[in-house]
Amino acid sequence: MAKDLHTEGNGAALKENFATDQDVRWCPGCGDYAILAQMKKVLPELGIPQAKTVFISGIGCSSRFPYYINSYGFHTVHGRAPTIASGVKLANPELSVWIISGDGDGFSIGASHLMHLCRRNIDVNVVLFNNQIYGLTKGQYSPTSPLGKITKTTPFGSLDAPFNPLALVLGAGATFVARTVDRDTRHMAEIFRRAAAHKGTSFVEVYQNCNIFNDGAFAALTDPQTKLDNLLYLEDGQPLVYGGETRYGLKVEDLALSRFEAGEGQDGEAHLHRETGMPMAYLSMLAELNQVPGMPTPVGVFRNDNRPTYDAMVYDQIEAVTQRKGKGNLKELFITGDTWQVD
Amino acid sequence: MKTTSKLKQVTIRFAGDSGDGMQLTGTQFTHTTALAGNDLSTFPDFPAEIRAPAGTLYGVSGFQIQFGSNPIHTPGDEADVLVAMNPAALKTGLRYLRNNGIVIVNTDAFGDRNLRLAHYEENPLESPDLAGYQVFPVEMTRLTKDALEPVELSHKEKERAKNFFALGMIYWMYNRPLDATLDWIQQKFARKPEWAQANTLALKAGRNFAEATEIFTTSYQVDEAPIEAGIYRRISGNEAIALGFVSAGEQAGRSIFYGSYPITPASDVLQYMAQYKHFGVVSFQAEDEIAAVGATIGASFAGSIGVTATSGPGLALKGEFLGLAVMTELPLVVLDVQRSGPSTGMPTKTEQSDLFQAMFGRSGEAPVPVIAPQSPADCFWAAFEAVQVALEFMTPVIMLSDAYLANGAEPWKIPDLDKLPPVRARIVEAGTADFQPYRRDPETLARPWAIPGTPGLQHRLGGLEKQDGTGNVSYDPDNHQKMTEYRAEKIERVNRFVKPPELNGPESGEVLVVSWGSTFGSVLSAVEELRAEGHQSISFVNLRWVNPLPELLGQILPNFRKVLVPEINMGQLGNLIRARYLVDTVGHNLIKGQPLSVSGLKSAILKLLED
Fold first, then answer.
1. B565 - beta bridge partners?
2. Of A51, A71, A340, the CB nearest to B34
3. N or C terminus: fewer CB in 10 A for chain B?
4. Quick check: B354 and B341 in contact, CB under 8 A?
5. CB contact under 8 A, A341 and B34
6. Strand ranges (DSSP E) for chain A?
7. Mutation target among B301, B329, B416 for the A interface, most CBs of A within 10 A
8. Residue B298 and residue A74: Cβ atoms within 8 Å?
């Protein structure tokens, strides 16, 4: 039976520094730096040693990430990180496996693998850097770019409807689904901790600013003047309320979230957010909320459910079959079926 | 008056409707033949349709066996005997029957409807169609039903036992005891006594009928073949491959990770591997071909023996990932059970047309060793060796089997476990001082295998070019040249590790035949028959390792007046040999979805001898 890596370190912080000696080669000002910094901060706190940590990426700006983390790492093929990560985890469930991907890598060329990873609920953590643009190939629109977006390949505006990443992974059965923003570093660190603690596929979408090809895509969520009016912080058991000067609450009406101005002491009328055991109808309302004009963007943990992980079931089955049949014996295997002796 | 005559080898083809139980009949005859001490080779020929409508031409299921008192290398070009259970089986089976061959026909199945389904305008049994053959018409259905009088089954059910009646006749014809099949029936139908009784009665009735009737005048005796002592079982190529992988894993003391996506004709191997969980095998049915190889590479990175399998179209999808495996120098075995292409082609039919894809189907300079098993039983050893080389040289290895080997079967001498060769993994232990992920072994040029979880050996792999030694990302021009050369030279050095191919015949002469993989049996038979006919100046070499090409080839090629390269493709090995050795090879290229015929090969060799 594999050891449970979620409890192995007992949360005791390690002194290990997860930085490598490689120069970090993202553009100055890129949101990726903040994500790397938070990851390096959180990893030692998890109590899982460098040698048992594996970072796997596909191709894209974000996918350089493993080179900058002193753990085992694998920079693989465009879109295919979930496949490699699945193999790593199935070969050795005692490893803590992180997938680093981007909107092009994870939702265009590799979309199907991501869905199947969530469906199987393999115990790995996905951090998807969503900057709504192709950065490494220098500025083409991505499957999360908004309709009408002008880029090098859509000089007259994009006609491609974007994916809603969280709706997709929720639909595919991901058991831990969260969103955070690159500039909100403390929130991001907390989400990483929660993702690591979850047993099963954890999916974290990070809104990440590409200051070269799509600068300001998330400005409304990061600008101190506007962010409070546009961000809805999800907290388990807490009401759906947000706002700067004016405070708003959200309640469920006619199968949708509707907004009301929440005066003093009116938070209680807002819907209480629950991460666990909620139906898809509710999760969809949250995932689609920021597509509704005037509605805020939820960040935090959308879902935190438990169901058996594929990797654990694989080894349970191996153990069960071995108990029933006895440990494999080549000689017996060879002599299966009709045999005959030649003298 | 009945006579017995002695034969050296015989080919029988059982053919009937998919529901007539021809595979079972063939398998039973094969087992009894093996027990009688003959050498043998078999090939099933089932319809591509999963449930083809009864009586149709495309619904015919065939099973061919060649057996003899001399060594047998193929299931036979042409059948001496065709057992045809209905008009469609007769029509499709005649193509495989030699002139003056024997046809045993179930006349009860030749009603109007079946004749129409087989597109016969008149009953062939009453027309000159069968003039060139010895025809034995037997009312198999009626005779079976008569024999099953005491059995409590419906008429329809009783009819189903007619394949055992046919088998009984063939057992009489070749002087075979019924015991093994009777035992099998008792075991198989232990819980269905009425079926055990029905099949037993039908088998005996068939034998007794053949003995009593005046239709059959001659029975045949095929003596024991000189076979190496040991315990044997009949094995198909796909079955043997699965056993080879499991054995190599056991020898290496590491788990096999088998990641695959269902594709004809490779799916059987995944099905077998899924049964071997008690050997610690992790079998993973991935969402697609790309995910299958990706997960397998991930498992190899994490310390398992990664094996993935596919057929031609799937190999195309895996190409990009194979480039990554070459770059990251991880051990990996990729099995391609080749089928007729391009595209969907003829998925159940054989071909050797993925050699170029295996050699070159990747971006960049990405050489990999390629092994091609030469017979169903050799599939075991080829799978085993593929794992050995993958681990020894830290490289992906492509194994090219094909539909013919996959489904064909022959006796397999069960290996002595103590004599299985070792399988060595180049694992770096924790605490190894001054570890570098790309520091090469001076002999093999393999890099070390540092497995995630091992303290102190953390490193990063990836598809970007690696700096020699450290494995850091490098864009240095001289480094890229050097690493490209290392990757090529490493594959050449596989020759130092694997057994060179055997040269069959003298080192110089008139004609050298160079084949690869599954055509071995047909070519060997052709060469042996020609020698027996007095043509001595023929030599033959079959390549199991097609990449790297063996040193022997370069040494002997200039010593022959003509070089023939027979292949089930348009000349892919021929092209490789021409390019490498500047030798004017002659091709014998037939792309019909069928194994090469011995007679066709003999003509091709004779033509060169006479040129």
1. B587
2. A340
3. N
4. yes
5. no
6. 53-57, 72-75, 96-102, 125-130, 176-181, 202-207, 231-234, 241-242, 248-253, 256-261, 297-304, 339-342
7. B301
8. yes
User: Is any Cβ of chain A less than 8 angstroms from the Cβ of B464?
Assistant: yes
Determine the distance in angstroms separating the CA of B315 from the nearest CA of chain A, rounded to an integer: 16
For the stretch B222-239, pLDDT in tens is 999 999 999 999 999 999
**Of B383, B353, B372, residue with least CA distance to B501:** B372
B298:A88 CB<8 A: yes
Residue ranges of alpha helices (H) inside B36-122 are 87-93, 112-117
Given this model, what pLDDT does residue A1 score? 41
Measured between alpha carbons, how far is A301 from A141 in angstroms, rounded to an integer? 28
Q: How many CB atoms lie within 10 A of CB B127?
A: 11
Under 8 Å CB-to-CB from A138, ≥6 apart: which residues?
A: A152, A213
**Residue of B84, B410, B370 lying closest to B237 (CA atoms):** B410
The neighbouring-strand residues paired with B143 are none
B143 vs B202: CA distance, rounded Å: 9
Residues in chain A: 343
DSSP, collapsed to helix, strand or coil, labels residue A54 as strand
Determine the distance in angstroms separating the CA of B134 from the nearest CA of chain A, rounded to an integer. Answer: 34
Residue B498 CB-density burial (10 A; 0-12 exposed, 13-18 middle, 19+ buried): middle
Q: Any chain A CB within 8 A of the CB of B223?
A: no
Q: In sequence order, what are the residues at sequence separation of 6 or more whose Cβ sits closer than 8 angstroms to the Cβ of residue B361?
A: B315, B316, B319, B322
CA distance A184 to chain B (A): 29
B297/A contact by beta carbon, under 8 A: yes
Angstroms from A66 CA to nearest CA on chain B: 7
Residue in A51, A321, A327 nearest the CB of B453: A51
Q: Parallel, antiparallel, or unpaired for β B586-589 and B560-567?
A: parallel
CA distances from B312 to B41, B271, B297, B339, B341 (A): 26, 19, 19, 7, 7
pLDDT tens digit string along B172-216?
999 999 999 999 999 999 999 999 999 999 999 999 999 999 889
Listing DSSP states for B65-77 in one string gives EEEESS---SS-S
Q: Which two tokens stand for residue B4?
A: 């017995």
Asked if residues B316 and B357 have their Cβ atoms less than 8 Å apart, the reply is: yes
Q: Is the distance from CB of A48 to CB of A10 less than 8 angstroms? A: no
Mind listing the domains of chain B with CATH numbers? Answer: 3-221 (3.40.920.10), 233-419 (3.40.50.970), 503-610 (3.40.50.920)
Distance of alpha carbon A205 from alpha carbon A180, whole angstroms = 6
Q: Is the CB of residue B45 less than 8 Å from the CB of residue B409?
A: no
Residue of B nearest to A70 (CA): B458
Please tell me if residue B327 touches chain A, with a CB cutoff of 8 Å: no
pLDDT digits (tens, 9 = 90+) for A103-133: 999 999 999 999 999 999 999 999 999 999 9
CB contact under 8 A, A20 and B460: yes
Q: Read off the DSSP letter of residue A289.
A: G
Contact at CB, A113 and B287, closer than 8 angstroms? yes
Range A204-223 average pLDDT: 97
* Cβ-proximal residues to B466 (8 Å cutoff; 6+ apart), any chain: B327, B438, B472, B473, B474, B483
- Stretch B378-395: mean pLDDT: 98
In this prediction, residues B340-348 reach a mean pLDDT of 95
The reported pLDDT for the residue numbered B330 is 98
Asked casually if ipTM beats, i.e. exceeds, 0.85, the reply is yes
Cβ of residue B192 closer than 8 Å to a chain A Cβ: no
List the domains of chain A with CATH numbers: 5-238+278-322 (3.40.50.970), 239-272 (no CATH)
